[in-house]
Design a protein that fits this description.
Elements: E1 2-8, E2 10-13, E3 21-22, H1 26-34, H2 36-41, H3 58-66, E4 73-78, E5 83-91, H4 98-114, H5 116-127, E6 131-134, E7 144-147
Antiparallel strand pairs: 1-5, 1-7, 2-3, 2-6, 4-5
Helix pairs in contact: 4-5
Length: 148
């Protein structure tokens, strides 16, 4: 079983400058998505999200034994909506409960906003200047979960 978590992004040009502007050009968003492999390679230094999804509870410890090590950020351009999304995927050999999936969503949002995801995105941002991808305004309820 694969659990794919998808969140929206905001792309800006000239991040934190007086002339900062939102980017919605499909060409630019597609170009950024094509560089997803470059972003994914930056996790060699930051690790997989699954290693950070442990709040010390017995629930988390049990869940982490059921999912495979992994969970990296990738960028996906959706042609239909013409938007750039961030995705993190986990794998499990068995079906997860709704509570376990919601826990993964909550912990993943935390990593997107202020953890391994944010750290790698900051480094990646230096390679795509003048553009910057914001992935820090999430609520777990707004994350689309797909079970494959």
């Amino acid at each position: 079983m694969r659990i794919v978590l998808r969140g929206t992004t905001e792309v800006v040009k000239n991040h934190l400058e007086d002339d900062e502007e939102q980017v919605t050009s499909p060409d630019i968003l597609q170009m950024l998505a094509l560089r997803s492999a470059e972003l994914e390679s930056m996790y060699d230094n930051h690790g997989a999200f699954s290693q950070y999804c442990d709040d010390g509870s017995e629930f988390a410890t049990t869940l982490l034994k059921r999912i495979k090590f992994g969970g990296w950020v990738r960028l996906v351009y959706d042609e239909l909506s013409q938007k750039l999304f961030v995705e993190t995927e986990y794998e499990s050999n068995e079906a997860l409960t709704e509570a376990e999936i919601q826990f993964l969503a909550k912990e993943t949002v935390g990593q997107w906003s202020d953890g391994a995801g944010a750290a790698a995105m900051d480094i990646f941002g230096e390679t795509i200047e003048p553009y910057y991808i914001e992935i820090d305004e999430y609520d777990a309820e707004n994350v689309k979960v797909t079970i494959v």
